Amino acid sequence: MHATGQVVHVDVVPLRGPSGRLPVDEHGIPDLERMCHRWNRYLPGDVRVLSARVAPAGFDARFSAVRRHYRYRVSDARWGVDPLLRRDTLAWGRPLSVTALNEASEALLGLRDFASFCKFREGSTTIRELQQFAWQRLDAHLIEARVSADAFCHSMVRSLVGALLLVGDGRRPIGWPAEVLRSKTRDSAVAPAHGLTLIGVDYPPDDELAARAEQTRALRQPTEAS
Q1: Residue 189 confidence class, pLDDT cut points 50, 70, 90
Q2: Average pLDDT in the 68-94 region?
Q3: HSE on the CB side for 126, CA within 13 Å?
Q4: 127 phi, psi to nearest 5 deg
Q5: Percentage above 70 pLDDT, the chain
Q6: How far apart are CA 65 and CA 216, in angstroms?
Q7: Domain Pseudouridine synthase I TruA alpha/beta, which positions (predicted)?
Q8: Exposure pattern of 13-49 as b/e (b: 16+ CB <10 Å)?
């Protein structure tokens, strides 16, 4: 999996060290613009810190989120995938119908129990609100799915995509993913990770971040600790 919109938070104490250590302002707070420059000098080439700021009180990058957005890219060319796209695009090798993909995806939208599309975790909740699941053809052989939800359980996006691709190439009927959803029995169709990219995370206004994190922890934390 890849990410262009990953958000993280780090708890730190004010730094008041001698000159030559981490850059700080007159209040002992790190100079974040200079810090980003330093981080990117030492990070591997496939990781970059694009920006940083002091977070509002109570912010949690994971639990304060109200929505996450992913994309999944697939090549349906019979010869595979463009070599320049091979790291983030799945080579499917069968023609795909965008119309069939969208029709089957629409039936999965809403607040539902996605146990059929989640890797089982003891005590975890699999109820999620799938808010967007739409497909479009970007060029002759490249198709992209956009998937958004209030949260995703483990392997949910790849499981959804894997099931829908079987519909798109005609091996399963349009109503099959909805039948799988209703069965609450996990299916084996899971798309490979390299076609998946996290492209964005939405948060509420700053004064609602702490409350959102507390609300989400009440629903998710026992799950994640199990």
Answers
A1: confident
A2: 96
A3: 20
A4: -85, 120
A5: 88
A6: 9
A7: 104-204
A8: eeeeeeeeeeebeeeeebebeeebeeeeeeeeeeeee
The pLDDT of residue 29: 65
Give the DSSP letter string of 107-152: TT-EEEE-GGGS---TT---EEEEEEEEEEE-SSSEEEEEEEES--
Note the pLDDT tens digit of each residue in 132-173: 999 999 999 999 999 999 989 889 999 999 999 999 999 999
Write the pLDDT tens digit of every residue in 92-143: 999 999 999 999 999 999 999 999 999 877 767 889 999 999 999 999 999 9
Structure tokens at 83: 């070599």
- Give the total residue count for the chain: 226
Which amino acid type is present at position 66? V
What pLDDT is attached to residue 14?
A: 58
Amino acid symbol at 210: A
Q: Which helix (H) or strand (E) is 102 found in, with range?
A: helix 98-106
Kindly state the DSSP code that residue 22 receives in the 8-state scheme: S
Amino acid at 59: F
Return the DSSP state at 30. B
Burial 54-82 (b: 16+ CB within 10 A, else e): ebeebbbebbbbebbbbbbbbbbbeeebe
